[in-house]
Design a protein that fits this description.
InterPro entries: YiaA-like, YiaAB. The protein is mainly α and 140 residues long. The protein is built from four helices and no strands.
Amino acid sequence: MQNVQRPTAAFVGAAWVAMLIGAGAYLAGLFNSTMPLNEKGYYLTVLLYGLFSAVSLQKSVRDRMEGTPVTGMYFALCWISTLLALGLLGVGLFNATLAPSEKGFYAMAYILSLFAAVAVQKNVRDIAGGKEKTASTDTV
């Protein structure tokens, strides 16, 4: 296992704030929009799918980097899912009857949410790894 430096509290806080702002803005935009309920459901599902696939991809990449076995099939599915989530948002926004500024708002909030979710997951893993390392050295 490689030596992972514990993230600073400022970086951990910034990642959480970015994720809450991105997802919160996206969800507030959906809540306040005049689009039909089925369309709101589509965009909510795309957000949840994107967050899950991005975190799963980050975990798979990190596992491979640390030497933890990850099957090629799962790794490929993570990449496909992340790209598919981005594609679904893109197609949805392209075909939506929204103003260009609204389309840009949803796209930027979505990307911010996915990026921040990856950063949060990385921080959680780094912190957990630091605790495991500390616990193992304490018992020796």
